[in-house]
Amino acid sequence: MPVQRPRGSRRRSADQPTRPEGPLPVVVIAGRPNVGKSTLFNRLAGRRIAIVADTPGVTRDRKEVETVLRGRFVRLIDTAGLEEAPPDSLYGRMRASSEGALAQADLVLFCIDARSGITPADEHFATWLRRQDRPVMLVANKAEGRSGAAAAMEAWSLGLGAPVAVSAEHGEGLADLMGEIAERLPPEQPTGTPPDEDALDAEAGEALATPADWDEEGDAPPEIVLPERPPGPLRLAIVGRPNAGKSTLLNRLLGEERMITGPEPGLTRDAVAVQLQDEVGPIELVDTAGLRRKARIDAPLEKMSVSASIEALKMAEIVVLTLDATLGVHEQDLQIARLIEREGRGCVLALNKWDAVEDRNKQRKAIADRIEFSLSQMRGIPVVSFSALTGAGVDKLLPTVRRAHEIWNKRIPTGALNRWFEGALERHQPPLVEGRRLKLRYMTQAKARPPTFILFGTRAEMLPEDYQRYLVNGLRETFGLPGTPIRLLLRGTKNPFGEG
């Protein structure tokens, strides 16, 4: 039987280029607001990453992605629109973020709107770019059809060379643009050796087992050990309500002003992924837009922001739920935590702005009581208190995340699991159902991420929820699984003396 590849994975084709070792060349898309930079970014990336809307200034924080353009791996960066504004204003902070990206660019794609023609802002920033000592390629976007291509020729007046006419929305001219980008990039670095994914799939096919392969006579199945794939970065998402300090926390972890921050709530509009390295290994860290109650979300742009945040949560391995410690645990925080549990993600509760809490002992007890009462399905969730603004206590967060990741990946030997299971049955017998006692036979761990267990027995599917909670709590306490979601699947066996 062929091995089914996990959902979301992609097979490496024979002619697909191998990622080179070391840093990739950086391609930055820049230009004034509403010229189609994010649409072009999505086209070049080959998938929808940045939020796109017919509203100026949608992009506030720069977004990055690794992609392949004409056989060359590049790090592609989308930036906020370039605007003249005071440095301490929101648009001034957005421009400073864009300038930070341009400073590391190997190639700048200066994007203009061919339909609108050359504006004074285009001329101003073209002059500014010529002084930055960075290779610049002029891209005339929204140049659909013959009239658009003719209008693009007006861009010669900017003094940045021949414009490349494209329509990111309709996909026109992108092949020529990718070819031009590949030609202007620095020489390629040596490549590494790709992992043999076919061999890994063959090993997985030999190791995988389904419930149908297991013994139905009551004997525990052999332990399942899946081969490990090459380690990748830990995928970590930072979520929470607006103005909880998520972007400030990300900046503190990175040690740079990567995300735009300020007193205004809701500054982050899109899910922004960055790379981080701690003493253990790489981390892919995603900052998300604030999640409000559904009834308060009206604007289409905010709906897209919320959708991007939820998608980032689903793709993460561990989620840092960031709370404003001065406000305590809000009902919306609990709703987000329940979503994390339903998606099976590991969770760390981050109490930000702890330096502003007056009575810390009282607040700590109030938060602990609320969590214990309202999040019983995530009992033992790790809590870290800190101040992202001053940095006090932030150093405790990533080690706590690593421990939560280990628990989320934990596997329990089948023998130890069933010895505990026998003791649990002796301490508390299964209840009567329809006047007959359930006969539970054995338990095995089907997978980790999150820990998932299968319980076999006669009419096991009829096991009441309170007894299921008894078993889950016992697993959590005995095998050290605090705070992580635990899945318990029930599999009944056929009665050979029954009907049919």
From TrEMBL:
Gene3D superfamilies to which the protein is assigned, alphabetical: 3.30.300.20, P-loop containing nucleotide triphosphate hydrolases (3.40.50.300)
GO molecular function per UniProt: hydrolase activity
Binding site for GTP 1: 31-38, 78-82, 141-144
Segments forming domain EngA-type G: 25-189, 234-409
The organism's place on the tree of life at top rank: Bacteria
Coiled coil region boundaries: none
Keywords: GTP-binding, Hydrolase, Nucleotide-binding, Repeat, Ribosome biogenesis
Xref: InterPro entries: G_ENGA (IPR031166), GTP-bd (IPR006073), GTPase_Der (IPR016484), KH_dom-like (IPR032859), KH_dom-like_a/b (IPR015946), P-loop_NTPase (IPR027417), Small_GTP-bd (IPR005225)
Family matches, as PROSITE patterns: G_ENGA (PS51712)
Region annotation Disordered: where it falls in the sequence: 1-24
Amino-acid positions noted as binding GTP 2 in the UniProt annotation, renumbered to this chain: 240-247, 287-291, 352-355
A Pfam family annotated for this UniProt entry: KH_dom-like
Assembly and oligomerization: Associates with the 50S ribosomal subunit.
Record-linked NCBIfam families: GTPase_EngA, small_GTP
Membership in a protein family: Belongs to the TRAFAC class TrmE-Era-EngA-EngB-Septin-like GTPase superfamily. EngA (Der) GTPase family.
Function text: GTPase that plays an essential role in the late steps of ribosome biogenesis.
Name of the molecule in the record: GTPase Der
Organism: Rhizosaccharibacter radicis
